[in-house]
Amino acid sequence: MADEFYVPAPEQILPQSEDNKQGRSEERFSEAEEHAIIAAMEEEQRNAYAAYTRLLDKNLARELARVNLPVSLYTEWYWQIDLHNLFHFLRLRMDAHAQYEIRVYAEAMAVCAKAVAPLAYEAFEEHALGAMEFSRSEIVALNAVLAGRAPELSGQALKRFEEKLTRIRASAPVSAV
Known about the structure:
Order of helices and strands: HHHHHHH
Structural class: mainly alpha
Mean pLDDT: 92
Distance between the termini: 62 Å
Radius of gyration: 22 Å
Number of strands: 0
Shape: extended
Low-confidence stretches: none
Largest sheet: none
Strand content: under 5%
């Protein structure tokens, strides 16, 4: 196993979001704090890998020795997947709400998928990436908006609904006046 770890770029070193348990805040740490955090991550990764190699030197089985390695250790793998399941994964992980690192990974996979199956990828872009799903409550809210009334949603549900409306408005063709 190679001694190669993921370390976030300074602009990705962000505090925890106040309203999203899975997300990051928009605010940044100071430049000095970002670099200190990165240095701490790198030191902990080096220490974990050194402990791993010491266990290997004692002839401990590799699957036991790697138990304490951090999730930031890069993994090399070979796998097979059909386009249906690949596109399902990409649709979920390329979403704007997905965590940054998995989004970058999915975008790299999408480049490969497009190169291997361009027609299928074009259909995926049209019918999955470019499409949008509405929940039952969002459809009720959409009907209210179309009738000139306010949507009866609140909190995260309203926020998601407004994001979808913004996306629809942004994709609508501009009519010539």
